[in-house]
């Protein structure tokens, strides 16, 4: 921010003037806005080493890093040169290997590296591009000169976080962005996607299994992720959604006759480009390393030119720090020019002279592993003394090839805004990760990047795994910049799409279970609210005959459990005896008869309060976590607004270990019901009625059908004189009933409303009708999928005589509900087998173009 005379540099003056003349609370509001956006958008960076396995919120500092156009121009030119050089090296190492023969690369550095994948030797690369994405970690010395710390060539991460940073910071400083002429990032991603489409067309036309795309047909590009447990999964899902790409896991893809296909509900669709985030050795369990993350046969498909893998398999070889010391000579040999930006001074200890230099200057160096197959470590020479120093030098001499030494660089600092009792500017060391993508006409560089911030004033390592923060990176343009978008320049009638033909079986299954889990959250919240209202508002001796049924339902859905009783029964106990106990998947006929469960009011209240707030027991909090977990598998399918509603719902309502008050717990339940209604609104009004939506809708209706069947069976078995208000409240139908009848609930109208009323979205018939209608639409393209299981039961419901069949204690009616419950479970199983267990049956169709 400051020059040598400690005067603000020109490009920082507008920012400082803005901060100086605004109200003191404005920065606090900006900070709160950024933190709220990060939280509500669900931006996370997961650290596998975290013992609790929780997702770590992304740390974004409110102040950006500002780079003037003149300084950026030098960085951009150096990054383009470096990406070009590394692409040439990668092509040579896996091709003619001239650099090895000429001695410009030591053979031990290549053949001793686990990242050198021998099955990839001789692999075809369209337009001679093997390095499609490139990232480089830069640091600025206190004198202002930029240095390269490391190259990221395997599956560079961070570009999506940089894009998310910009989207969050933009509304924080909208005027400054315009005043400083900050370049947008969207054009880079448009270029990236256009380039991948270009190479996808080449794969379709020039591979050894040519199937040129039809006029107006787009190549299928997918983003291959290791799954939700990976550290940067949020970024991968965010990029997939922004670029409009299917986010797939290894199990979603298959290779047939050297061609990669996506397994969709419509059959096999050929994949032309795989933008991968899976490590090299895990990409193909057949030819590389055994792993569940990859696709068997992928290496062969890429070798034959039938699919573009970006980056090319084997590209992790270039990430070795040992390579840095050889790049100057390679640049002169391959490009005919010196490096525009030097790497930090690096020595590979595999060279005898370098080893001696390292031992002699250990105090000024940082020692790191030379190969990716070695355990990661960072040793600061200045920290070694006595026996530890002697032992380390002995280890260096014993296996010199395994070590790389780099000069300990003092990093330039930038201002960060720190909140707290004394908020203000503080200095922190920073590093900049810059991104480039290959195009048919050379490399293009993102006008910005991911600025990483050290954890403290004395931190010597920049790493997100250790809790580092980030900044938005502002690159100034010479003149006003155009705002780019990812929209295609022209769309013809051939480009019109009405259905997602690339919906994978895994995504469809997750959508179905998202619908089920969302409905389970709603069911449990409503049941807890009904039960706690009894406990809080009605004395034990004044409760009617309906209370044992409510308690029995709490036992059935595992909100009360004999094994979790906090104490032995005492005076004032209530006895509840039920036929079954278990989750929604159980049925009355399966459960059998359980011994009587006896609870006191105090025990019931304690257990139900715990079920509301604690994820360690069955209840609302646990179910909300399960909903959020399954939603995490569908991150790219939901809008930002949808995600905000999800993230608000799972925010802790009370500090861990603290028991909420009666008013607090009822507020939690009311808020949960409202949030779930919001999610349902997104599903009804914010999602297109495509195949994915249909599976989600079936999931919701199946869950509601099973829940209502259980509740009504229990209600029919309770005392005839019990009040039915609780049943209408639980079924969210109390307002409808009162508006229609203006009288106390009676069995005939209640059963008609909850069983046979097709206009009531909580009725049994409404669910069956909706399920059958959705199945009918799916069957038009996928064949029969279980309609016969529910259709006869629908007719039985319609045929019921209100005057004789809709009454208390009707065994025939209870039996019908039980058969509906069993049929819905059978339908769920059939859908899973037919759509989610992929096999080559006659209904699966294969497209090769």
From TrEMBL:
<dbReference type="InterPro" id="IPR025841">
    <property type="entry name" value="CP_ATPgrasp_2"/>
</dbReference>
<dbReference type="Pfam" id="PF14403">
    <property type="entry name" value="CP_ATPgrasp_2"/>
</dbReference>
<feature type="region of interest" description="Disordered">
    <location>
        <begin position="568"/>
        <end position="594"/>
    </location>
</feature>
<feature type="domain" description="DUF403">
    <location>
        <begin position="503"/>
        <end position="836"/>
    </location>
</feature>
<dbReference type="InterPro" id="IPR051680">
    <property type="entry name" value="ATP-dep_Glu-Cys_Ligase-2"/>
</dbReference>
<protein>
    <submittedName>
        <fullName>Molybdopterin oxidoreductase</fullName>
    </submittedName>
</protein>
<dbReference type="InterPro" id="IPR007296">
    <property type="entry name" value="DUF403"/>
</dbReference>
<feature type="domain" description="Circularly permuted ATP-grasp type 2">
    <location>
        <begin position="64"/>
        <end position="454"/>
    </location>
</feature>
<dbReference type="Pfam" id="PF04168">
    <property type="entry name" value="Alpha-E"/>
</dbReference>
